[in-house]
Amino acid sequence: MKKGYFALVLHAHLPYIRHPKDPGVMEERWLFEAITECYLPLLSSFEQMVKEGVKFKVTLSLSPSLVSMLNDQLLQKRYLQHVSGLIELAGTEMERNKNNPELRDVTLMYFHRLRELRHTFENDYDCSLILPIQSLQALGVLEVITTCATHGYLPLIMREEAKRAQVQMAIEKHAHNFGRPPAGIWLPECAYVPGLDEVLKEYGIRYFFVETHGINLAFPVPRYGVYAPVYCRSGVAAFGRDPESSRQVWDSHAGYPGDPYYREFYRDIGFDLPLDYLAPYLPGGNIRCDTGLKYYRITGEGVHKEIYQPRVAEQTAAADAADFARRRMDQMELLSEQMDRKPIIVAPYDAELFGHWWYEGPVWLEHFCRVIDSGKHGIEMITPAAYLARYPDNQVVDLAASSWGEGGYNEVWLNPRNDWIYRHLHRAETTMVDLADLYPQAEGVMRRALNQAARELLLAQSSDWAFIIKTGTAVQYAVHRTSVHINRFNSLTARLTEGHVDETELAEMEKEDNIFPDIDYSIYSRHYRFSHDSRSGKGIGGEKLRVLVLSWEYPPKTVGGLARHVNDLSIAMARLGKNIHVLTCPVVGAAEYELVDGVHVHRVNADAVTATRFMEWVKQLNRAMAELAEDLLSREKFDIIHAHDWLVQEAAIKLQNISKLPLVATIHATEYGRNRGIHTNTQRHIHNLEERLAQSADTVICCSDYMVDEVVRLFSLDGKKVFSIPNGVDPANLGIPKKLVPGVKEPNSEQKNIIFLGRLVPEKGVQVLLEAMAILLQQQQDVRLLVGGVGPYADYLKNRARELGVQDNTDFPGFLQEEQRNYYLRKADVAVFPSLYEPFGIVALEGMAAQVPVIVSDTGGLGGVVAHGIDGYKVPPGRADVLAYYIREILVNPGLARDLTRRAWKKVLTIYDWQHIAVETLEAYHEAMVAFASDSEN
Length: 938
Fold this sequence. Notes:
There is one protein chain. The chain is an alpha/beta fold. The protein has 4 domains: 1-69 and 129-247 and 339-413, 7-stranded beta/alpha barrel, CATH 3.20.110; 420-526, immunoglobulin/albumin-binding domain-like (Up-down Bundle); 546-724, Rossmann fold, CATH 3.40.50; 744-912, Rossmann fold, CATH 3.40.50. 47% of the residues lie in helices and 11% in strands. Strands 1, 2, 3, 4, 5, 6, 7, 8 and 9 form a 9-stranded mixed sheet that branches. An 8-stranded mixed sheet has the order 12-13-11-10-14-15-16-17, with helices on both faces.
């Protein structure tokens, strides 16, 4: 009777090593040794068992870097040269050992074995090991999965975009090579941190593996331990490593590989025989290394070693395989008594253990498969995907961070020996992400350079380099490879920034580091996963997504920043191929319907909104909007409703109920925040409208993390349904007009010009700026402040300027038309926004887009727009003395001002570009539709 299942998982990986100009690089032999001692013997065993009808299942993880090398014609050619050299060496050794029967027999074994392996490689496999793997996959005995592109250690990769690039590149290459996407993935070094499963889910991965304590320390405690998979909250399954089967194989002393009759790995003729004799077979003719010809068995811990006896070693491997199977049966007996389902024992190993480190490993593995197939032990070999198909219901837990490295976490890959690499890698990650966003549609040599930069970053991220540096083996090579890839990356990106790429230098890099020839650098874009769905070819929401947008103001009616936000976002969405219909208020001289920049604009009839009192006007607008929308819904099909702020709350909720469509609400600001509390009945009424809209929406969008916290707290929302998506800015709207509108005063070019733009209300903090001006004028007289805007606080501020004695250096021009505002902004030496409360602060972003240094209060959304000392300055709200200090810092340091401006400009072109914000909004739409569908099912 079958007691349970056994999942044998082999992870095959080597770092990408290919030196086309130098065929004598010793580290290239790592691949050749693995092909000879591990990959070919394992494949031969699998094929032999298939021929004999032995039933077995193996999960094989192949790294994309290894697959790339196995497919590389140059390396295939060099392998044939390598193995032919070994055959020649073995023939020479047969002659040398002809008078020593024991050594001669071992040498003869190597000679025949090497010739057979070369024939299989060259004639049966046509020099490509991928072909037999594909065949074994088709027969169903191998489940082939992938790992990250270059085996990057994910917990220490800083940028989410860089993690996704490692995963996406791997999945694309796997699908190309094996005709299907992988069901599972091997996380490099089995290293997991919470949240990684969400990335895997995006790419359709169903399962991965973790070290034992990743399962045992999960919460809640998994009821079956590592003997059944668990689900992460994302729905991706995790399988834990069984410690018993691991220890019995991995442990070189207490485990099977330490048996005295097995071949001694550390005695090789490459170190035992004279250098001049070995020279023709060594790298460079003078570098000692393993040849693979090893004549001795482990024997014992002492120096003395007995000669290797292949037949005895094979008999030992068969006995050890039977013992391993018996122990698994005993384990299954015990587990089956404790579980209400058949357990699964997951035994993951490095594939290179079998044959390279443990020479008899492939023989042991084949004997084990044959023993299990005999049916005597009540065990069935299975793949993780097959087990999930039989047991789809599993416990949901939060996994603990873990890896299978020494110490169980990150210390192998992050320690005093190798920590220096991460400052370079992390800087490169950020640079790559920025470049992908700065040049979204590069062509020609620029595209080639960006693609090569992406390759260099991936190659530098290989976990192998940090591992080698820590363990102290080929340290010089690992340091060299890390440095080369980082230096190449830096050289490419510097030339890209300068606008001149050296094609000769680029061509050399493309020849040297030719991994992933079809790479697309845009996988590093912040928004690639939203605007490109690599699995279906469609963007999130589908190509025909139809959105009904409700906004109380829309150009040409512009009262505040909301109209510009809705207009720019709608245009960006339309450019992505979405059907956007905006419902808004009437405007004198504007048609009730028009198609503007790809956006369908519907205005309610002016006769429907005639009230003079604002709150009554809002009620009329909502009634008219609802009627107009109902008419539209009767003629058009929509997928989602998007309501902007409380002024359209009544219409939004009514339409949500009538149409049965998901609702997204953008809360641009709150009544509580504007007034720093709720003090009147009108404020309380508006607050209640905001609350009802936020609670009714399937997804809520806010313009900053600050606003997310405020909205969640004020309206008791589930934080998971609230998205932080910033406002955007279009630099094209901030061009300098050729001349000023008549009557506007020309800025004094001999003075340092400070500018503020915004409504003149207490929360904008202009009073603090005036106090800072008084301090500043004590230090220098050549400064002038322009306060552009209108509001109920204007008279107070003008009086305050006189009280402070700054009236002669301060202008209050009142309301500025867009052209006037842009002119003054571009002429300013510094733009200051000292708000006491600010949900986002679009004017600060416009200052950055106008390439003017900005100083903002560290409050609300403003604090998230500016990185202090990097692309602007932040000051504590209300601190006039600190504000004055930083204004002067910019005015007297033009070089500093240029650096701040340059970095701010890059941020504008990446994070705050409307096209990027549009695809982030599409993600919010997607989540709203998912939430709506889930609620409908329940």
